[in-house]
Amino acid sequence: MKIDAIVLRELKMTLLRAFTTSFGQTLQRRIVLVEIRAEGLSGWGECTAGEHPFFSEETTDTAWLMLQQELAPVLALSDPDHAGKCPEIFRAVRGHRMAKAALENAVWDLEAQMRETPLAMLLGGTRQSIVCGVSIGIQPSIEETLERVEEEIAAGYRRVKLKCKPGWDVNMLEAVRERWPALVLSCDANSAYRLRDADHLTTFDRFGLLMIEQPLWADDFYFHSMLQRRLETAICLDESIRNRRDALAAIGMGSCRIINLKLGRVGGFSEAIGIHNAAQERGIPVWCGGMLESGVGRAHNVALSSLPNFTLPGDVSASRRYWAEDIVEPEIEVSSQGEIEVPQKPGRGYEVRPELIDRLTVRKEEIRPLAVVR
Ligand code: OSB
Ligand code: MG
Predict the structure, then answer these.
(1) Considering the entire predicted model, what is its pTM?
(2) I need a surface site. Which of 76, 91, 161, 190 has the fewest CB within 10 A?
(3) Which one of 30, 160, 315 would you pick to mutate in the ligand 1 pocket, going by the greatest count of ligand atoms within 8 A of its CB?
(4) Active-site positions?
(5) What are the DSSP E strand ranges found in 265-312?
(6) pLDDT one-digit tens code per residue, 17-38
């Protein structure tokens, strides 16, 4: 494909309510979107970097810099015949996986349109609909937590994940479990615990959780493998898994029994498919995580979740949980059965809304192949 231009935009979007994890609170999102124009079509991608380097090293600003100075110029000068070539095109740049993913996913999006194929099908998806869970942030009180959980169950969601941290765990989990004994429940610590908390973490076993997500260090496999041996509850790794080799290491060492797959964290669809396949071959289920995405990233998460080894409910939920107005049409909607239909239309299957995107844009830059001097 011959690329005419790559447009970078930063959008300012306010969440309907603040989202709190063990590492901090987010209300105001600063989202980098990329648009790749080629052959009369536009592919879109979203960078899932946060505003601060708390979840990972990347931020909105580091991603902007890398996209503008390194990645978009290299991609604009290449003319990939397949989106799967992107990792090779970006190989010289170390790290910055969320920035790379924004571009690579836009190329997949574009390729699906060119081939007049649904994005999900191009990726190897086999599901007509995906099963959805929700991630509930740390609340000011247990009462408010119970209210949130009640709303989400009433909306049809099939799994509830509760953010936790030392001091906000057993009492809260106990209250939720007591009220809903059969609820499919998990928790996510975003690496807030240490190995000295192992005895404490074993007490979570009594809540019958589907999993404990990323209890220990964001870059660790070894200590998670030691912890996993002591827990009945499955550990799910999120932050630790950056690529397929990490997934193989974690599975091989017994660091986890479940993997949370996030497109941005692993650098895009190609690596995500590699991890999906490696996990599938070894009997390890995966599910799709979320990063408080706008409709563009969310549409890509829906497509990814249609692959066969996404056998657990993901954190892919409805636009209306996050935004007064999402930037895609239709918005991502969840049925009363807690499912999202995988679009059967060519491409991502959710149109972008250009006027709304313009209104939310706070900076914009266009990179054209002819203007790139390397
Ligand atoms: O660890 O899964 C996480 C949001 C931001 C950063 C990290 C995480 C999350 C979530 C929210 O849990 C998932 C979502 O609803 O998008
Ligand atoms: Mg997580």
Answers:
(1) 0.97
(2) 91
(3) 315
(4) 163, 262
(5) 286-288
(6) 999 999 999 999 999 999 999 9
